[in-house]
Structure formats: C-alpha cells, structure tokens
Amino acid sequence: MNPNNIATIYAILAAALYAINIPLSKLILNHTGATITAAFLYLGAGIGLLLYGSIEKLIKPEQKPERLTKKELPYTVAMIVLDIIAPILLMFGITRTNSANVSLLNNFEIVATSLIALMVFKEAISKRLWLAIFLVTIASIILSFEGEGAFAINTGSLLVLGACTCWGFENNCTKMISHKSSTEIVIIKGCFSGIGSLIIALFLGERIPHLKWVLAILLLGFVAYGLSIKFYIMAQKCLGAARTSVYYSVAPFLGVAFGMVLLGERPALRFYAAMSIMLISTVIMVKEN
Predict the structure, then answer these.
(1) Is the pLDDT of residue 55 over 80?
(2) pLDDT at residue 218 above 50?
(3) pLDDT digits over 2-38, tens only?
(4) Other CB atoms within 10 Å distance of the CB of residue 19
(5) Phi, psi (rounded to 5 degrees) for 145
C-alpha cells in the first residue's frame, strides 16, 4: 500500500481513538478534579505505551528504532511543558461547557498547527487550506459566545481554544522529532507530562480519587492519548504536521456523536450552525492536496 495511504489511515485511527476522550472525561470529571484527571490521562498514556513497547521488543527483537538524542532535547522539553498546560486547560474547559462544544472546538487545533507550521517551521499552506482555516475560525468564534444576552463569552470555550493553541505548538515540536521512535516519544510525553500535572494538582489541593476512577482514567489515557498520539506521530512522519491535523479533523464530529449518545446532550441552535461550517471546512481540508 502507498505510504501516504497508510499514514492517512493512522491519522484517522488516531482521531477515532481521541474522539472518545471528551464525553468520557466529562463523565469522569463529576467524580475527580480537572488537573488530577489531566495528570492520570497522560500517565495512562505513558505507562500503557511503556508496556506496549516492552511487548513490541519481545515480538520484534530485531527492530532497532532510532532513539532521541541531545539534539532533540529543546523540542522534547517544549513538548512536555505544552502537554502539561494543554490537557489542564482542556479539562477545565470541559467542566464549563458541554462536550459537543468542546469536541467541535478541537478543530481549532488544526488552525493553530497549520499557522505555526507556516510561520515557524515554513510548511506550505495551500489556498484551500487557508479557506478551511478561515471557516474553522468563524465556527470557533460562534461557539465561543453563549448566545444568551448580548455578547456573553463562554469561558469554557476560551479554555478549550487555549488548549488547542498549546497543542498546535506541541504538534509542531513533535513533528521535529517524529522520525524517532514513536513509542519512546509517547512514553516521554505521558510520563513526564503526567508527573508534572500531578505535582500541580497536589499543589492546588486536589485529592487523588478512588482507585476505580484512577484505573478508569489510566485506561482512557492509554487509548485516547497513548495509542492516539502514537498513531498521530506515525502519520506525521509521512504527511507533515499541517496535513496530519487535516485528516485528524474528523475527531470532533465523532466526539459530538459520542457526546449525544453517552451524555444525551442536545446543543443549542448556534452549535448546529457552527457544525455546518466546520463540516464544510473539513470537506475542503480532506480534498486539499
């Protein structure tokens, strides 16, 4: 199979796995703190991929993936710091708005990733992709206002947009080291970002939840963050940061569907207006060459 097609499958698979994160996190946040949840999600990713990597070595001992070196240290450190900030902002955002809004707003990560890829890392952006970025931005603005009253700003939406911006920078940092072992990258992301978030959570006075919730968050972290990030990095190796995020844009729509099924959410009219715009932008991005 063509390497580009394989990479596209990885990107869409990453999106599908991540899509379950928003509605399930919203359910979990009824029983845990936002920062502690972010911490265990990333720890689940790190620990899960550590076990995955051990099994991988036993099955394919002849494979020698390229390890990270001191040359990649600046990107690695930036990746860890951004991965501490972003999920904390996301969890606080989830507690302040419905999961459908959060899922759809995650498309703003594409805007952030693409613009940073252009301005900082000099990746090319076509006219079609510029149009898609404009449409995503308009939809994000619609979702950022409550709609009740004049121009009341939805703080939950702003927190999610902040998380997406952090992940936009993080995606580009990860792209710079994506030629290395994807398993090792996720282990470093998960363990160090998780420990950093855990320290912040304890400092803020959040309590560690009951063991059943810790295990639930760790499992969700392994699937929605660990495996999803691994497949995302594997896609980036071939497609680049901007184009991978384009295929990843199906995640919000899957997240909305999961939210409606699992949480019984019925979003306001402005949500459907924003979703229509997002859908058009996604079609444009998927067709972009």
Answers:
(1) yes
(2) yes
(3) 777 788 888 888 888 988 888 899 899 999 999 999 9
(4) 24
(5) -110, 140
What per-residue confidence (pLDDT) applies to 2? 77
Output the DSSP codes for 247-281: HGGGHHHHHHHHHHHHH-----HHHHHHHHHHHHH
**Residue 46 C-alpha from the chain's centroid:** 15
Q: Where is average pLDDT lowest: 98-107, 118-127, 147-156, 190-199?
A: 147-156
pTM of structure: 0.79
Give the DSSP per-residue string, the chain. --HHHHHHHHHHHHHHHHHTHHHHHHHHTTTS-HHHHHHHHHHHHHHHHHHHHHHHHHH-TT--PPPP-GGGHHHHHHHHHHHHHHHHHHHHHHHHS-HHHHHHHTTHHHHHHHHHHHHTT-----HHHHHHHHHHHHHHHHHTB-SSSSS-B-HHHHHHHHHHHHHHHHHHHHHTTTTS-HHHHHHHHHHHHHHHHHHHHHHTTPPP--HHHHHHHHHHIIIIIIIHHHHHHHHHHHH-HHHHHHHGGGHHHHHHHHHHHHH-----HHHHHHHHHHHHHHHHHHH--
Phi-psi group of 208: left, alpha or beta (phi > 0 → left; psi -120 to 50 → alpha; rest → beta): beta
pLDDT > 70? residue 212: yes
